[in-house]
Each structure stands twice: as structure tokens, then as C-alpha cells.
Backbone:
């Protein structure tokens, strides 16, 4: 854990506000470029949503830690070989729902085989579908939605839609009416060689990142909340952190874009033209999670690494977000993830709407949390008979939890919808020295998107500081 320390009365070239993967990667790149960087994190540990927490003898990973093979290249290029060497493939991803039950390695070859042999889709249609995804480019003027894309290749086949989209919905909140081009790029990344994770767990990765940041000269301050970004004559001049003004030439905000504009900077500093479109940007949804620690000496049979489990008849975005839980993802953590350990844990993740939790009294929240736990255990009982006797620790999180720990508006786990990307990338043109890196749309989200966006933003900041 990085210990909180007092911020000294000194100035920095750049303050990075928020130590998620995007913020940490940006800070690391900027320090490597020779800039004086302060990384300020409001929480007691770094990592953002790519983090962990400890309870009793258990270590729980907070997010769905599966990412494409491209993360290995990004680790090697931006963090070092020792990070890339810890990227290992997830062995088994399983679907269990009323429409189908199957196991996959989640790559193009296996998905093609499943679509042709299991779902009986003609080979040429499958080939044409993947060829269409491969040709998609972010800069293309393609107005199709995911629904349009699926209707083109798999009309009426909601079972196929579920197979192709449900994992991406769990991973970053996208639905059928999101842009097809964004889905194609993200799904294509996973299809290259499957799903991977970080051997040693998130706790080891965050420790390694903290060590690397300090080695490169980044000053890390935890429990340090950026309360205001100070702007004068259209230009950043510093930030207010824990009640103290800290001068700097640029600020990189690694958090919710809506909060950056409305709270930390203030709309009065932005042109009306920018604001008129910005106010139409939608927030993504939030999440609930249930964390289950397995007793020392107990074990779990191998039931898969990621399990997409649902009782709902068909793919339905509204049902995935409903407080009446019918669908969830199980991330199962075996001792092999942390070599030398004998610990097992399970994290159940459910998409959620912030509004379904907002304003509830404590007793109602307590009951709803208990319902989450009971629902999770009831489903797991079918996979692991006697699971209740194996568990010795249970904790839940809700959209209110995510809002409290991350500061994200309405607990938006995945930032904004896709249209937020333009406002994120052009914010530097509205206020000199102001930059954003964070989850915007389904491209710049997840581990790979967040890290790569941090690099893109760092390059822009470096040019600004040097000009």
C-alpha cells in the first residue's frame, strides 16, 4: 500500500488526478519524458477500478480482470518486460443460460467453430461477419448500431446475439444500441487470441506499478483528493488538493468526464458550443458485486475461470441492469493465479442502474445487499454443491460503493457512453493545460483501453509542456 503523505509547498509540471490504469500509465510516461509529476489519488491505495482489497486472510480483485492479448504488448512497451511476462491466458469461459450452455476459449477459431457447429450458422456468413469486424476503423463514418450489425448477419437469432454481446456488456456496459464500430474494435481485440489475466493478482500488479512509478520519479500521494482545478485566463495554473493550492502547468484527470467539467473545472470555463454537445453525453451504467472468500483448507472444483450465468430467456440489456437479478458473471480465482497460495475466492458481478439504489434508506440497502448474496449463493449451489459451508467471508458493493470510492458521478463504472470520446479528446482545446484520460465509450475502457488512452494523453501533454 502507498502511504498518504503531506503535499509539500512546491510546483509540478503536471498533476495527474486519479491513479487508475490510465492515470498511472500517463504519469509513468510523463516522468520517463523528464517531467516533474505528482500523482494524486483520493483513495488510500492506487489502481482505480483495477484494484483489490483485503479482508481477513482473503485478497479480492475488484473488477473483471480479463483483457485481450494486446495488453501484453502494452505492458512490455509502457511498463516493462516483467509485467508482460505475467500475462497468462484464461483457460475456460463458460455460458450457462436458458438458450445454450457451452465452454469456449474466446478466440476467433473457437467462436467460428461454435457459430458453425453449435449454432448452425453457415460458414460463409461467419467468415463475412469476422471480415466486417476486421475492417472496422474508429475513424470510419459508420452509423450502424450493434443491433443493425447483428440483424444484418444473424437476423432473429437472439441466441447468437447473446453469445456475441453478453460478455462485452458485462465487461463495459455496452448494449444493442451502441455503435457497431466500437463493438467491432473491442470484440475484435478479444477475438485475436482469447482472454488473459495477470498472474500474481491485482495486488502484485499494483505494487509493481507503484514501485516503477517511484523509480521513474513520480511523486505518489494517496488520500489526496483533487477538489478543484484552478483555471485563470483560459489556462490551468494548479489544483486544490486536500485544501491546499498546488501550482502546475497541466492537469491530467483520470476519472469521470462529467465530474471534470461540471465540478472540478466549472462550466463557466468552457465555450457554449462545447457545452451544448457535452451536456448530451450519457453516462454508462454502474455495477454491483458480491465477494466470496473460501475457508482455509477448503477448495473449489474447477468450474471455469469466467462464467456468464443467466436465468433470463434472452439477451436483454434492461434485464441485465434490473435490481431483480437474473444475470451475473462469476470470476473464479484459483491458487494458480497467485503461485504459492492456497486461496480460493469468487467475485460475482452484476450490471446495475445507480437510480435503483439512490436515496434508499439503510435498511432497504441492507435487505437488497442480502438479496444479492442469496441470489449469488443459490446460483453457485448448482455449480458447487455445499458452497455455503465453504465460504467464511462475504462482502457486497453497489453503485453507491463505486461512487464513494471512485468519485465517479452516479457510480458510473464505465465512464460515459461512446459519444463522450470526442469531448474527452478535445477538452485540451477548450482549456489550455487540461487533459482527460478515462473510460469513455467501449473503446477506451477495460485494462487495455485505459492503459493505451493514458499513453495517448501523455503524448499530448508532453507536446503541450514542451511547446
Residues:
Amino acid at each position: 500500500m502507498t502511504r498518504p503523505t503531506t503535499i509539500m509547498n512546491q510546483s509540478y509540471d503536471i498533476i495527474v488526478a486519479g491513479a487508475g490504469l490510465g492515470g498511472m500509465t500517463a504519469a509513468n510516461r510523463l516522468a520517463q519524458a523528464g517531467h516533474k509529476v505528482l500523482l494524486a489519488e483520493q483513495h488510500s491505495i492506487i489502481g482505480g477500478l483495477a484494484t483489490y482489497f483485503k479482508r481477513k486472510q482473503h485478497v479480492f480483485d475488484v473488477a473483471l480482470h480479463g483483457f485481450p492479448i494486446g495488453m501484453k504488448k502494452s505492458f512490455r512497451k509502457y511498463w516493462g518486460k516483467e509485467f508482460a511476462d505475467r500475462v497468462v491466458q484464461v483457460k475456460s469461459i463458460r455460458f450457462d443460460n436458458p438458450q445454450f450452455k457451452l465452454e469456449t476459449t474466446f478466440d476467433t477459431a473457437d467462436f467460428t467453430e461454435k457459430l458453425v457447429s453449435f449454432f448452425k450458422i453457415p460458414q460463409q456468413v461467419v467468415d463475412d461477419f469476422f471480415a466486417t469486424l476486421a475492417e472496422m476503423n474508429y475513424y470510419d463514418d459508420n452509423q450502424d448500431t450493434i443491433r443493425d450489425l447483428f440483424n444484418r448477419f444473424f437476423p432473429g437469432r437472439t441466441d447468437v446475439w447473446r453469445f456475441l454481446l453478453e460478455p462485452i456488456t458485462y465487461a463495459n456496459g455496452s448494449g444493442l444500441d451502441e455503435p457497431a464500430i466500437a463493438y467491432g474494435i473491442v470484440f475484435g481485440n478479444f477475438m485475436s487470441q482469447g482472454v488473459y489475466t495477470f498472474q500474481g493478482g491485482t495486488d502484485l500488479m499494483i505494487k509493481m506499478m507503484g514501485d516503477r512509478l517511484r523509480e521513474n520519479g513520480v511523486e505518489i500521494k494517496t488520500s489526496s483528493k483533487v477538489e478543484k482545478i484552478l483555471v485563470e485566463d483560459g489556462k490551468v495554473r494548479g489544483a486544490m488538493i486536500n485544501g491546499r493550492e498546488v501550482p502546475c502547468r497541466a492537469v491530467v484527470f483520470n476519472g469521470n468526464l462529467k465530474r471534470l467539467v461540471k465540478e472540478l473545472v466549472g462550466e463557466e470555463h468552457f465555450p457554449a458550443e462545447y457545452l451544448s454537445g457535452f451536456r448530451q453525453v450519457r453516462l454508462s451504467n454502474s455495477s454491483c458485486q458480491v465477494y466470496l472468500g473460501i475457508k482455509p483448507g477448503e477448495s473449489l472444483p474447477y468450474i471455469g475461470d469466467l462464467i456468464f450465468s443467466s436465468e433470463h430467456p434472452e439477451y436483454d440489456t434492461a434485464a441485465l441492469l434490473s435490481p431483480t437479478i437474473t444475470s451475473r458473471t462469476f470470476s473464479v480465482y484459483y491458487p494458480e493465479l497467485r503461485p504459492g497460495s492456497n486461496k480460493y475466492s469468487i467475485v460475482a458481478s452484476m450490471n446495475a442502474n445507480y437510480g435503483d439504489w439512490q436515496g434508499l434508506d439503510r435498511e432497504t440497502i441492507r435487505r437488497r445487499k442480502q438479496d444479492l448474496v442469496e441470489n449469488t449463493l443459490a446460483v453457485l449451489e448448482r455449480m458447487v454443491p455445499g458452497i455455503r459451508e465453504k465460504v467464511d467471508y462475504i462482502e457486497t458493493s453497489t453503485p453507491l460503493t463505486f461512487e464513494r470510492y471512485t468519485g465517479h458521478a452516479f457510480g458510473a463504472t464505465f465512464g460515459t457512453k461512446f459519444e463522450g470520446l470526442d469531448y474527452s479528446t478535445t477538452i485540451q482545446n477548450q482549456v489550455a493545460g487540461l487533459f482527460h484520460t478515462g473510460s469513455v465509450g467501449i473503446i477506451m475502457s477495460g485494462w487495455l483501453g485505459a492503459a493505451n488512452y493514458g499513453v495517448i494523453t501523455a503524448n499530448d501533454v508532453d507536446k503541450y509542456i514542451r511547446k
In short: The two ends are 36 Å apart (CA to CA). Confidence is low (pLDDT under 50) at residues 1-5. DSSP finds 17 helices and 18 strands in the chain.
